């Protein structure tokens, strides 16, 4: 149960209207919501059309009066009624009014001495009991309290004792500012001893004129409020709304949901919901904010808040999984794993959850448990490309022999052809996994849904796999059944055919590598370490040693700025920056006249050095 008080120091800011619209929207989102009219001097909650009115319904005034008369807290169920048809998705809305609106109401209200209630009749305990009755009777996610204005004893009950949060609405003039400074200070002092109760504050400018602020009058006023009230950002701004619908007290969130006013109330709903650990939608939005925009979320007390969310949603796998990310972010790896275990235990076996648990298990040394999770990811048709790709990378690192499960897995088969090709490219990091990559690529080439571009990508990948395995003749045949005319080849096909032929015959074919240089001279947008490396080899074959060294130097510079893994045409594998530089060193020795053959050729010859 999350209790939110709507307070304004002065009237005329649309406080009750804001409360009603927020309450209706929360109920429509599936929450159980209680609206409490504590503006006892000028009640107005029941004047809104919420489906049912109970003109004889007793409320706060009668509840307190009966307690004073009997010395026992009455049954709160006698002072609450429901508004059917307001909620959605299982949400419900109740009202606890200020009191019976009959001629004797003023007398009943003024007979209550609030100071004496607290000093002589345990008023504090009465309202604690009231909160507990709300909790047990209605089990609400939200209780929204409409507080009276000014400095009052009742105001203290509403702004300090009862709420978890206070929405402070104000028109930005000096009169409101001078009054709010003390109220806000009193609310913040609740965090000190003896109560140590931290109350969230949401500051909302209301009834703001929608006028040209050329002289920055409004901007200056709001900045002054910000400085003296000590908040960083406004939670919402509610503009003045010129419409006769206000006379009918229209519930804009329900009746005019596309209006600007409804959008502004919606912004306020989101801010409030994010602070309520019981509101699932609000919690998910808060967790996303922490992960994607950490600068907007204070880390003070974050662990305590996350623990509260965890306690509020012990069977919600999605929330547990998101929480685990934040625990990991805070360096709490064991807690993160425990949360993922809880998520999986309640049936949340999503690929994302299993993959993250596998990564955490592996980092903690539990490779066997990690592999079990990774194989489950591969068995899921719901895994996306990024999840499959990360799964392959981790398996390649901790259990290469398990990669055989990838090529026929439901997860891989559910991907588009282009994505399957990309997964296969992840396997070009180790010769032991090239067979698996080959299998994936051959399947992609047979896929009738494969586009021309995807087919070409799969064919190129297959050629790389075959060359990397030392199957040079097969690679040449995959490119062309007979030796092709170099003038019809693309730069990529010409280079790969040349390297396969070099491996097969032991001689680097100058006509094919001449085609590579020729196409490069016609202009190329490529500017990668791999491309420069390929050109260095081509220039060497043509005897252009200075140009070969120039390209080699460019490749060396590129791999260092910034350093990143790269496909090496010297090995026909994806390699680390350090290994790529070693390959460049060998190519340099080749250019300098040393008798060298590429590493992928030596691999076939049985000399992997």
Overview of this structure, please?
Among the domains are: 275 residues, Rossmann fold (3-Layer(aba) Sandwich); 126 residues, no CATH class. The chain is of the alpha/beta class and 609 residues long. The protein has an eight-stranded mixed beta sheet with strand order 3-4-2-5-1-6-7-8, with helices on both faces. A two-stranded antiparallel ribbon has the order 9-10. The longest helix is centred in the last third of the chain and has 17 residues. The two termini are 68 Å apart. The protein is built from 28 helices and ten strands. The model has no long low-confidence stretch (mean pLDDT 92). It is 54% helix and 8% strand.
Q: Characterize the biggest β-sheet.
A: 8 strands, mixed
Number of helices: 28
Radius of gyration: 35 Å
CATH class of the domain at 2-276: Alpha Beta
The helix fraction, in percent, is 40-55%
CATH superfamily grouping of the domain at 2-276: P-loop containing nucleotide triphosphate hydrolases
- Provide the CATH architecture of the domain at 2-276: 3-Layer(aba) Sandwich
Helix/sheet category: alpha/beta
Strand content: 5-15%
Shape: elongated
Extended strand count: 10
